[in-house]
């Protein structure tokens, strides 16, 4: 027993496999510690999506497991409410995420570092384990090949996309399982890892599935098999894939249904039948450190694997010791993979027929694996290149280097130093591989060179990024926790939403565990984006951001609380004052302050409507216009009130318009302005407050932060957020007679005042109407993420049960014990026509197709268990028969 815990008494290959795991783990831990990443200092690994999106999901993951398991299926923290099973299936189903349960949201960056280095180690171990079990490599070569795989360009570049790394960990085990099955071993060796990746991340599993088809085609020609043997191999492969699909149905089937409401709306968008870039430029990505921030949105594929695999690939396709059929298939598959990483339609195919937003060519990990797999299959200590092989490769390499050298000014990912480093490693390894005498010193030197090159590539790549400081992150999260924790008890008894004028990310509601109005998710329902566009809030295909609401939209959406900065420490990163999107001055004097701390104010909206309330039947027939958000809010509000009063919002004219270095237009909305001469230019729009309510400014979808700076009384409004439709900017409250000036400062030589208009809300009229609507609200008796019930009394003039619950698939509604079908109101929410009087209403969310999926997965499992039992019975019968003889 003591030998198990004594590494000195382990077998050589056991020690080597541990080395494969520990080597990249230690290298990255030391590197992160040297960069002072938490818990080793004041920095973090948080950058781009890891810091702006994934960390919020990790926080929600812990909340779901420890507080409210219903959030596995639905959450009102996802924008205004959305299905979450599909989100979890994409972001959070990795079993390694359970490590994060030991960290609260304040210390999540430390947990993310631990998770990251663990995935580096597991990727290395997985590859080493696979090539060891196939008897391709042993001893010291295992950590060398394993570390090369862990430090391949794709994995290092996508270190921040932690959810994808499980695919790199499982791919070698999937291929190992397939090889064992083809060799007559148990089908479970293939099914288990393939099912695992289908459950953990269906998106990356799809890419692996495409690669598996290529791999089995290649494998059919490995030996001169007879055709019936090849068909038998294909049968085993197909059976394993089908069973894996059946077993994993529990995740992918409900998720596929969800995607029909999100990503599928944008499939085949912007497809162009052409190469995405000049193909030879890809050759530069084989050199060290060729990934940087500029490469994230529209870069080239990350395919760095080091020099040795490239040399061994050349040997593989030029050596007569390898069957010509295998070499031909190898060239064809490699060519297909290369063309896929440059030709638009094939790239689209690999990404499930939807172009990725940032991080292009996400499937390039299979190409890196392919090169390293071929290298591991052919490498042996006595292998050397002939003079002809070495000379021909040297000529090809010289041509590549020459091309890249003259192309350097056009490549934003490669410089002379990187080119020199890559050339040095390649020539040294090529020289060593040409030598015929290979002793232990030669082997050690080759191994060290390989490790040095891949480590150099990893560190140079990671040095290209800037990271969020731990101090900034913790300052924000601690403050958010302090302001939202006291609301959790009320949330358990009632339904309300919280809006905010500042945000670190659009996932703040997940961090604070409250019902909000913003989110950033690849599985965002398109209806959310459409509704936000209608009411003038920033939105995109995968995000919505409710930070610039109005009195009407706050009330309609049940925004009971508003988090605002108290303007303290605006220059300190992570404070609300530093992260303010829009100051909600329109609520001053209307929303009383309920609670404050050193950095934040929490005010309460006295006009927030219940999640369900009585409204006029006119709400069922409201019509809206694109890019007219204020009028759309008027229509929503008036239709619910039965058009019994005048609109809340009215157009407000500017009393004076003055241009500086530009001509003042007679009509503001739609005017096209140009500078009179080079230099600063602006236009001042002046109005005099009448004291009847707050003002709001609208900006068209083509007006961006790059075009203009908006100032109110010469104080800059925070950055204009990215938006595709006309948005609403709240202005501050002003006393009657106060002169207010909105300045539009040019950032370019011209400025289009697209949909630039000023509106005013009549606060007294709004208050009367909101109070009237609140009188007949749902009295909640039960509330959770997936179940909401209570009693409501509808008066005769308001016989529609209006809600702010999205009318999306999965919601089941019963009224007085009878199932009803809700109608869609305001193009998004549920509305239910009812008779006047008292009713008991229950809303329940059931993930679409989940029960069907569970049935299929259980049925597949029982089928396989039945086969296993049958085979075991036959085996036992044969053994007993043999003994009786």
Characterization of the model:
The chain has 885 residues and is an alpha+beta fold. Among the domains are: 167-260 and 849-885, no CATH class; 262-468, no CATH class; 471-612, no CATH class; 649-761, Jelly Rolls (Sandwich), CATH 2.60.120. It has 27 helices and 28 strands. The strands form eight sheets. Strands 11-13-18-15-16 form a five-stranded antiparallel beta sheet, with no helix packed on it. Strands 21-22-28-24-25 form a five-stranded antiparallel beta sheet. A hairpin with a 3-residue loop joins strand 21 and strand 22. Helix 4 packs parallel to helix 7 (165-182). It is globular, with a radius of gyration of 31 Å. Residues 565-580 have a biased composition (Polar residues). Residues 565-589 are annotated as: Disordered. The chain crosses the membrane at residues 16-34, 88-103, 110-131, 151-175, 187-217, 237-257, 299-317, 329-353, 359-379, 386-406, 418-435, 442-462, 849-869.
């Amino acid at each position: 027993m003591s030998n198990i815990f004594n590494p000195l008494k382990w077998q050589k290959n056991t020690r080597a496999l541990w080395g494969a795991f520990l080597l990249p783990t230690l290298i990255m831990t030391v590197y992160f510690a040297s960069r002072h990443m938490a818990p080793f200092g004041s920095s973090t690994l948080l950058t781009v999506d890891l810091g702006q999106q994934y960390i919020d999901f990790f926080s929600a993951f812990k909340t779901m497991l420890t507080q409210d398991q219903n959030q596995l299926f639905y959450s009102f923290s996802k924008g205004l409410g959305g299905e979450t099973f599909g989100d979890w299936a994409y972001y959070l189903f990795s079993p390694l995420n359970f490590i994060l349960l030991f960290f609260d949201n304040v210390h999540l960056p430390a947990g993310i570092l631990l998770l990251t280095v663990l995935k580096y180690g597991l990727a290395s171990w997985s590859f080493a384990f696979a090539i060891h079990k196939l008897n391709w490599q042993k001893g010291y070569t295992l950590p060398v090949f394993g570390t090369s795989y862990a430090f391949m360009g794709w994995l290092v570049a996508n270190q921040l996309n932690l959810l994808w790394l499980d695919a790199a960990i499982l791919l070698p085990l999937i291929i190992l399982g397939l090889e064992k099955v083809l060799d007559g071993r148990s089908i479970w060796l293939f099914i288990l890892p393939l099912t695992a990746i289908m459950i953990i991340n269906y998106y990356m599993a799809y890419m692996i599935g495409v690669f598996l088809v290529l791999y089995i085609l290649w494998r059919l020609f490995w030996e001169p098999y007879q055709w019936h043997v090849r068909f038998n191999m294909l049968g085993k492969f197909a059976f394993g894939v089908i069973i894996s699909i059946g077993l994993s149905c529990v995740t992918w089937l409900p998720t596929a249904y969800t995607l029909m409401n999100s990503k599928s709306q944008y499939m085949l968008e912007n497809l162009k039948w052409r190469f995405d870039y000049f193909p030879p430029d890809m050759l530069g990505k084989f050199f060290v450190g060729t990934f940087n921030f500029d490469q994230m949105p529209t870069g080239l594929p990350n395919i760095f694997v080091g020099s040795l695999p490239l040399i061994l690939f050349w040997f593989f396709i030029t050596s007569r010791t390898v069957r010509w059929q295998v070499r031909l298939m190898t060239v064809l598959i490699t060519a297909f993979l290369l063309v896929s990483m440059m030709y638009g339609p094939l790239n689209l195919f690999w990404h499930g027929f939807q172009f990725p937003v940032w991080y292009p060519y996400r499937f390039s990990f299979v190409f890196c694996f392919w090169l390293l797999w071929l290298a591991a299959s052919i490498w042996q200590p006595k292998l050397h290149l002939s003079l002809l092989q070495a000379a021909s490769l040297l000529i090809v390499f010289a041509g590549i280097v020459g091309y890249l050298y003259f192309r350097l000014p056009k490549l934003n990912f490669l410089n002379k130093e990187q080119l020199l480093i890559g050339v040095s490693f390649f020539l040294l390894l090529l020289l060593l591989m040409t030598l015929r005498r290979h002793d232990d010193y030669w082997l050690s030197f080759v191994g060290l060179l390989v490790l040095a090159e891949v480590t150099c590539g990893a560190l140079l790549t990671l040095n290209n990024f800037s990271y969020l400081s731990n101090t900034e992150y913790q300052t924000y999260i601690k403050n958010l926790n302090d302001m939202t924790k006291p609301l959790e008890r009320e949330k358990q008894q009632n339904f309300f939403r919280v809006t905010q004028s500042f945000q670190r990310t659009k996932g703040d509601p997940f961090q604070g565990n409250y019902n909000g109005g913003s989110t950033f998710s690849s599985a965002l329902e398109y209806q959310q984006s459409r509704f936000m566009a209608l009411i003038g809030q920033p939105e995109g295909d995968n995000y919505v951001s409710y930070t610039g609401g109005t009195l009407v939209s706050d009330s309609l959406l049940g925004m009971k609380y508003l988090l605002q900065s108290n303007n303290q420490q605006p220059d300190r990163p992570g404070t609300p004052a530093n992260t303010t999107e829009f100051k909600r001055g329109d609520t001053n004097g209307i929303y009383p302050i309920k609670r404050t701390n050193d950095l934040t104010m929490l005010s309460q909206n006295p006009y927030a409507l219940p999640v369900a309330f009585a409204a006029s039947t006119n709400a069922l027939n409201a019509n809206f216009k694109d890019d007219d958000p204020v009028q759309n809010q008027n229509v929503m509000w008036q239709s619910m009130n039965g058009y019994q009063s005048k609109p809340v919002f009215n157009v407000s004219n500017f009393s004076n318009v003055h241009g500086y270095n530009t001509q003042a237009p007679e009509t503001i909305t739609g005017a096209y302005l140009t500078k009179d001469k080079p230099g600063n230019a602006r236009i001042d729009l002046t109005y005099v407050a009448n004291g009847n309510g707050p003002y709001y400014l609208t900006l068209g979808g083509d007006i961006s932060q790059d075009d203009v700076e908006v100032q109110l009384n010469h104080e800059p409004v925070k950055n204009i957020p990215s938006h595709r439709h006309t948005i609403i900017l709240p202005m501050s409250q002003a006393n009657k007679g106060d002169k207010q000036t909105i300045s539009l400062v040019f950032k370019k030589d011209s400025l289009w005042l697209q949909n630039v208009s000023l509106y005013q809300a009549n606060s007294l009229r709004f208050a009367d109407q909101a109070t009237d609507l609140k009188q007949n609200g749902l009295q909640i008796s039960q509330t959770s993420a997936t179940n909401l019930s209570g009693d409501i009394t509808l008066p005769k003039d308001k016989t529609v049960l209006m809600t702010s619950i999205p009318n999306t698939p999965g919601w089941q509604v019963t009224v007085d014990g009878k199932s009803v079908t809700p109608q869609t109101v305001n193009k998004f929410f549920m509305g239910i026509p009812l008779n006047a009087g008292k009713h008991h209403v229950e809303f329940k969310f059931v993930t679409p197709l989940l029960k069907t999926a569970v049935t299929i997965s259980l049925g597949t499992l029982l089928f396989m268990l039945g086969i296993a039992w049958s085979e075991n019975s036959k085996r036992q019968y044969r053994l007993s028969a043999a003994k009786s003889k």
